[in-house]
Amino acid sequence: MDIAFEGFTWPERFLVLTTPFDFEAMRGMCFRNYIADPEEWCNCFKVAGDGPPGLWRLVYPADPDAPEESLLADDFVQNKLQNFFPLEEPYEIVHRNLYTVHQRVAANFRKGRVMLAGDSSHVNNSIGGMGLNGGIQDAMNLAEKLTRVWKGEDQRLLDLYDLQRRSYARDFVQEQSIQNKQRLENNDPESRKKSLDGLRATAANPEKARQFMLKSSMIEAMRKVDAMTLEGS
User: Fold this and answer.
1) CB 3.0 to 4.6 Å from 4: which of 107, 214, 217, 222, for a disulfide?
2) What is the pLDDT of residue 37?
3) Distance between CA atoms of 95 and 200, rounded to whole angstroms?
4) How many CB atoms lie under 10 A from the CB of residue 15?
């Protein structure tokens, strides 16, 4: 469609490993865990899969200069898991993948009769789960407007979709997902302490905690963009 996909690509790749090891039962972990470490971060979360225990997925940053075959090799993969979660036996790995990570937003979500949504319109790092959730929100927003246009309303509603969802992806998802990554990989002791102290203070204050949840759950930003209108509409 000759639509620019504006943004940048991170130098490091993400290593993704999936295992049936039950981190909830064996480690007391919740279904979504973000582990910040001065040397290396890790995400550990529950995903779909027959169970119990089902499947758990782990995500690590990967050396941008290392060959793909070495990053996916059994010894390297086991070492990654054992460094974070020591186990007396090797982990069972049912899936492994290495992928490039982008932060990009399409210059337009509408071009004539073509509408962009989901990964075709915006991509970001996976820390926070905002890519898939944002794509679902795109679909809900667009479906509502397409239905109204199909019933005879002004096609400018599709331009409103572009305004709302592109603003959302550009001004919120990109900013928040980049901050999530930077928070995990921060290795400055003073800065890390300040960030953790701030999170503790937020958790201890019910009103601040509520505002934090409204923002991190994407509800606050959704309310703002849903209130947007086209001039003269």
Assistant:
1) 107
2) 83
3) 35
4) 23
The reply to whether the predicted model has a pTM over 0.90 is: no
| For the chain, counts of helices (H) and of strands (E) | 9, 8
Closest CA to 79 of 12, 11, 17, 23: 17
Residue spans per domain, the chain: 5-102, 128-226
| Torsion sign (Cα): 146, 149, 153, 158 | positive
Question: Per the CATH hierarchy, to which homologous superfamily does domain 5-102 belong?
Answer: D-Amino Acid Oxidase, subunit A, domain 2 (3.30.9.10)
| Cα-to-chain-centroid distance, residue 119 | 12
Summarised one tens digit per residue, pLDDT across range 20-58 is 999 999 999 999 999 988 888 999 999 987 777 789 999
**Rounded Cα–Cα distance for residues 201 and 208 (Å):** 8
> Residue 228 has which token pair?
């947007």
Structure tokens at 25: 């039962």
DSSP state of 126: S
